[in-house]
Design goal:
Largest sheet: 6 strands, mixed
Strand order of the largest sheet: 1-5-4-7-3-8
Number of strands: 8
CATH superfamily of the domain at 62-223: Peptidoglycan recognition protein-like
Distance between the termini: 24 Å
Structural class: alpha/beta
Strand content: 5-15%
CATH class of the domain at 62-223: Alpha Beta
Shape: globular
Number of helices: 7
Radius of gyration: 18 Å
């Protein structure tokens, strides 16, 4: 979350797939595809919202707590924006204070998830949608943001429980969108172009974290496919 509120990023955009519906419908043998695309197109019209199941989460280990609508933008990722990155943040405060900040429409920023020092996970924005967390529009559109409870200058805040829970979450996100588990695709907020944030800071143990993510990813692969983002995805 850092020290500066991210700027609002609230314009609605018609997805690339919707724009090609007309051409697809006229192509030979594409009638079924066209009907499917047209059925999905209606909610992209400005003022019409895609139906959502209230309280649904994308990660089964998370508890749903809704962020303010002012702190994210409705989308249909990965159909309209491909997801190829996880961005690691530190809250610069307690778990509860981060939740309250993201519920506040004046905050103008929020991440998809918050991970506590005790390993609990809250999801506040669907992975389908664009969270205002990176301070960079392109990075917002292509990433999932994860906040971690604590302060960048207090290494004791980064507990074993936090590392383990966050690694499992990141591994699941990487599996869902086929994101490589490496430091080009799992990055810190400080690495986002144009940002003045320093999180997760010098005490975040990247070597340890990435080993845990890879281990969790391997374990998850052994237990079956991750599935698509949905109320039961995880």
């Amino acid at each position: 979350m850092g020290t500066r509120r991210a700027s609002a990023d609230g314009d609605r955009r018609i997805g690339r797939r919707a724009l090609i519906v007309g051409g697809a419908a006229t192509a030979a043998g594409a009638a079924v595809l066209a009907r499917d695309e047209l059925a999905r197109w209606w909610w992209r019209v400005p003022g019409i919202e895609k139906p959502r199941e209230q309280g649904a989460v994308d990660y089964t280990g998370a508890r749903w707590v809704a962020a303010s609508d002012a702190n994210w933008r409705r989308a249909d990722r990965p159909d309209d924006f491909g997801v190829d990155m996880v961005i690691v943040h530190v809250t610069q405060g307690s778990f509860d204070s981060a939740v309250q900040a993201f519920k506040n429409p004046e905050h103008k920023a929020a991440s998809h998830y918050i991970v506590g020092q005790d390993g609990r996970v809250a999801q506040m924005i669907r992975e389908l949608d664009v969270a205002y967390h990176a301070g960079n529009r392109d990075y917002n559109e292509r990433s999932v943001g994860i906040e971690h409870e604590g302060f960048v200058d207090r290494p004791e805040d980064f507990t074993d429980e936090m590392y383990a829970a966050s690694a499992r979450l990141t591994a699941r996100i990487c599996a869902r969108y086929d994101i490589p588990v490496d430091r080009d695709h799992v990055i810190g907020h400080v690495e986002v172009p144009g940002t003045d944030h320093t999180d997760p800071g010098p005490h975040w143990d990247w070597d340890r974290y990435m080993k845990l993510v890879r281990r969790a990813r391997t374990a998850q692969a052994d237990t079956g496919p991750s599935g698509s983002p949905s109320a039961t995805a995880g």
